[in-house]
Amino acid sequence: MALRRLSIGGNLDFDLTQEQQLFADTTRRFLADESDLAAVRELAESDVGFDAAWWQRAAELGWISLMVDESAGGLGLGSQGILYVGVVAEEVGRALAPGPLLPCSVVAATLSRSGNASQRSEVLPALVAGEATASWCFAEGGRSWSADAVQLEAKREGSSYRLRGVKAPVEAAGQAQHLLVSARCDGELTQFLVPADAEGVTIEALEGLDLARRFARVRFDDVQADEDSLVGSPGSAEQDIEQQLQLALAISCSESAGAVARVFDFTLEWVFDRYSFGRPLASYQALKHRFADMKTYLEGCHASVSAALHAMADGSAEAAMLVRVAKAFVGERAPAIVQECVQMHGGIGVTWEHDIHLYLRRVASNRVTFGEPREHRASIAGRLGI
Amino acid sequence: MVMESLDAFRQRARDWLAGNLPRLPADAQPWNGMRVGTDEARRAKELQALLFEAGFAGLCFPKEYGGQGLAPEYQRAFGEEAQSYEMPLLFNTPTFTIIAPTILDLGTEAQKRRHLPAMIRGEELWVQFMSEPSGGSDLAGAITSAKFDGDNYLLNGSKIWSSYAAFSDYAICLARTDWDAVKHQGLTMFIVKIHQPGVEVNQIRQSDGGAEFCQEFFDDVPIPLENVLGKVNDGWTSAQRLLFHERSASGGASPYAVGVSGRRRDTVEDLVRLARARERSDDSHVRDLIAEIHVLQTVQAQTIERVTKGIASQGLPPTSGAVPRLFGSLNGVRRSDVTFEIAGTESIAWERADSPSTVGNDYIFRQAWSLGGGSVEMQRNIISERVLGMPREAAADRGIPFKEVRRNAPSK
Hints:
The complex is a heterodimer of chains A (386) and B (412). Chain A has 386 residues and is α+β, with helices and mostly antiparallel strands. Chain A is built from 11 helices and 10 strands. Chain B folds into 2 domains: 230 residues, Beta Barrel (Butyryl-CoA Dehydrogenase, subunit A, domain 2), CATH 2.40.110; 121 residues, Butyryl-CoA Dehydrogenase, subunit A, domain 3 (Up-down Bundle), CATH 1.20.140.10. The model of chain B has no long low-confidence stretch (mean pLDDT 90).
């Protein structure tokens, strides 16, 4: 009897609408045609994290228009747009595609929501079209990835501001034209959109774990920011930052869930094909039981991400909690499952030649960005009232 | 007759509940099927009878069997409205969500008319006689025997781990009727009246000191032919139906459930209370543990929902019900560890005047989470073999008459 797999790692969501399913299929086809792991490996050897022309073709599929109003060139899906973003991120994770999906989505959504007229009419269409990219300057070195930890100073000088501080790590800043900067003005959270080539901005490339993702340290040495560069009004960025954090967490968790699903699939195939002592590895109960555990936690990853996305789409008050639950769970489980899959591969699993480490790099990196599981558990405890 | 709209039904249910059922106290403990005694059984029957008299019982059961013939959304609405009231939740599992749908699937017309209305009126509580002392995981290896004597089947042997059997009325029982057939082809499913001569029900004292489970001994118990559920020697098919309903019910999605627990099990309120009582709620390690349990329980509930949808939309095979079960078992163990850790010294030594610490005893009983309803090892076999399609374990009992299958060594 031929051995056959009955099930694959599965989709994030079992109740995608027809439009969402179509969108998922288009995205998957594009990534299958236009992105492969050989290209990812080539990028590892270069200074750039993605090919700008490739990114523009990806953006033409609508990736950055999903969270943007129609009036600013977006699809006008309203809060439902997040469900489509989840679909793209999952496919990006599955294909391990490069590109600044997360930072561009975050900046575009915020400009659509809180940007001024010129930001909406000049910057946003270029982001949507993939002609320009943006980064979100949020974390500050060793401090936590939370609004409370933001200390970059925005000093008021007449009608303009002077930015001083250091942001790191900032995803895709090296190739970005625009920087969304989370800062404090008179102690209150305030955000600015400044050109990446503004005077006083220094972008220093960092080496990174994820071969297809570049991080940078961005220094702001007395960067002049005029009133027009404010995003929202001074001192009122708390809400925007929370929305940005939720979106960033939703994207990175969707991506990790997609990546784990793919790794689980090819690892399951491997144990069917690999024989020891005259029988397939898949026939050993010691391994079967570990696959059962992995499948269980993989379904948990999909379930928690899907629940968070739907809460965000519904504008539910629970979204803040559920997106942190997803990060606490996926952040913990995704690298653990991939490590277990490395073990299933045996020696080949720890070679540079095998692709599994590319996935492990992605999910390990995603575990850390926007807060370790432990940070989110601390936040969850607070939200539980203790 | 025009069907009552969902909204009108909901309003009528709300009014009736407010006037007729007691509300649960605000600090009511979550429904816990493991802490049930005779009083709870009597009370559940009273409540179910009240629901029946008011026309709110068996909402999704066919009218000809005592139900209301309504669509699942009516049951869901009623369940939501009834959440904060005392409800006969004891009837949920296995009576309404497992046994009743199995009888609907396999029962004769006479069996349906005899038993389904009696369940819905609150007169019959049912249990399952499935596991045996010879081994719980190998269900089809049952050695309780039923031999036809010309008039009746005579039941001999023993069943175990049946919750609530001591105060229930009927059981569904899997027994071996043909020892010459291969393992899965010599079984028959029976309906057995529990309280009758020849049946001895003993409560088992558990490691935590409780006694919620029972063991039954059968000594030539006569079972009339009309109590065969399904076909003679085709009991494994009947058992599969039963297990299907058991899996479907595990997500709380069964339309036959009488209601849902007003106090969800999947909260960490009791852990928060415990941490505060021990003055440990400021300890960052304790806070991390509580948040961890909150995450696990939230994701467990989300996984139940996902898998239920996945099975319904055929994105996942029906056997995927084992996924949330395994998740739940693993979480139960972790939760027990965390609770024991937060409780600290007071869970191992307490004042004579105080009521005994349940935390310590719950920890002693911890592995019950990994055993009840199918051990985690069996869940892992199901997931790997029947969800992922990995090769089945070798078995030494296939293709030979069951009487030749090797069994446990005699006890010394």
